[in-house]
Amino acid sequence: MARYAAAVDQGTTGTRFMVFGHEGTVVASAYQEHRQIYPQPGWVEHDPMEIWQKTCEVTGAAMAQAGLAASDLAAIGITNQRETALVWDRRTGEPVYNAIVWQDTRTREICQALIDEGFEDVVRQRAGLVVATYFSGPKVQWILDNVEGARARAERGELLFGNVDTWLIWWLTGGPRGGVHVTDYTNASRTMLMNLRELDWDPELLAKLRIPRSMLPEIRPSSDAALYGHTGVEGLPAGVPVCADLGDQQAAVFGQTCYDVGEAKNTYGTGNFMLLNTGSQAVPSKSGLLTTAAYGLEPGRCIYALEGSIAITGAAVQWLRDNLGLIADAAETERLAREVEDSGGAYFVPAFSGLFAPYWDMYARGAIVGLTRYVDRRHLVRATLESICYQTRDVGEAMEADSGIELRTLKVDGGATRNDLLMQLQADILGKPVVRPTVSETTALGAAYAAGLAVGFWKSLEELRSNWQVDRTWEPTWSEDRRQEGYRQWRKAVERTRAWVDR
Questions:
Q1: CA atoms of 230 and 474, how far apart (whole Å)
Q2: CB-based contacts of 87: which residues, under 8 Å, 6+ apart?
Q3: DSSP string spanning 288-347?
Q4: Which of 345, 412, 351, 418 minimizes the C-alpha distance to 383?
Q5: Exposure b/e, 43-63, CB count within 10 A at least 16 = b
Q6: In the prediction, which pLDDT does 220 show?
Q7: How far apart are CA 132 and CA 115, in angstroms?
Q8: Where are the alpha helices (DSSP H) in 92-193?
Q9: Least confident of 76-85, 211-220, 364-373, 465-474
Q10: If we measure between CA atoms, which residue out of 194, 200, 85 comes closest to residue 136?
């Protein structure tokens, strides 16, 4: 009898396989990083075959760790880094190019041309998005235009496109030997190609980006009782239903049990992503947010969300470690930042990939301002942590303006929430209580929940909600004057980064 639900959590820096019990507790987990490839400034790529290989390895490791067999798993769900685009041969599974990562800015000219033509309003109305290098559609156009022979092969129906979820589901269910080519509402809503209200590929958007529809996966519910397929790859558990798929941030919404209108969560990873449940209505944003699918439990219907996407948060900490050598590991940031009372007047705006919500300036670049001889590495580390919190406040204010809903508390998840000082700074800068759940890996948990729900391992959303437990709450401690002055200075720093790259 199946006793567990599992999830593949394929993120920007690595891949995790997690197995959960009925109470939402972690039974087994394995993780491996993959390479980050930087061919040119602003270009970010991943090796698709390396991602697939890591998926196989962590799945095998987690199953062995707990001594599990395929029969122990009720279902597997997929959650993934969104907007990272892959194109591959449908007969062989061979990628025609590396995966172009969501942080990549090489499609700036494609996006600017769409903006100059006045097409951004169409994108906003149909897809709920802005025109930005962030999304998958322009990346696919770039591959078809720049990889020799790719466009002709795509038009002959030889190539497939997908975000990372589609790539993994295709391989898990057989790959070249009958793999299923699907995605879900949440991932499709991040391509700049799906009509958000019709929940189907939009012919005008496809035509504008010159992407053949034959490349595109079938769009299915995020938790699908009809199942996408079953695992059928040698070396992995065989015959397990694959029946859930959510982009990583929507999976966190599901894992944080934000099932009611007005509930919000913020995930702290490579970037930060805050989502607010707006129910069965897609709410247009006037404040620089995205309108997106939150999850879908049946064909043709979904729950929507407003989203604030921040490109660089945890990645800024990696930059301190890997590029500057200021820290040995991320855990060191809490100790160093506690050694000083503030950032010494320094502000760090990590606009390495431009600015995402609520500014959407693909010409912005990172800057550290307010430097004096007084500032040392401890202040820069603290300024980095504060930058994560200030960017979250930017998004929170936009969210309240768009929705008319006051955020009373913020549910948080992701690896960086283990940093207690960061969470206290977030409460102080936001001026709201910050709540961390017992299980912080809510992205994987959400995908497992959606998979288990599809096969009846869990019976209802209320049953899932009963699993959610608070680990710790942080209350604001700063005075209102300090909070407002700090934010004023932050906004001033942001302005120094705007339009840095010449068009």
A1: 43
A2: 95, 96, 97, 140, 143, 144, 147, 150, 154, 159, 160, 161, 215
A3: S-EEEEEEEEETTEEEEEEEEEES-SHHHHHHHHHTS---SSTTHHHHHHHTSSS-TT-E
A4: 345
A5: ebbbebbbbbebbbebbeebb
A6: 97
A7: 9
A8: 108-116, 120-127, 136-146, 150-155, 164-172, 185-188
A9: 465-474
A10: 85
Alpha carbon 212 to its chain's center? 26
**Strands, E assignment, 11-120:** 14-20, 26-33, 45-46, 73-80, 85-89, 99-100
Residue whose C-alpha is closest to residue 13's, from 81, 111, 107: 81
223, 79 contact by CB (below 8 A): no
Which among 344, 329, 416 is positioned nearest to 382, based on CA atoms?
344
Pairing of strands 194-195, 14-20: unpaired
Centre a 10 Å sphere on the Cβ of residue 197 and count the other Cβ atoms it contains.
16
**What is the per-residue pLDDT across 82-129, written as a single tens digit (0 to 9) for each?**
999 999 999 999 999 999 999 999 999 999 999 999 999 999 999 999
> What is d(CA 30, CA 28) in angstroms, rounded to the nearest whole number?
7
| Contact between 374 and 344 (Cβ < 8 Å) | yes
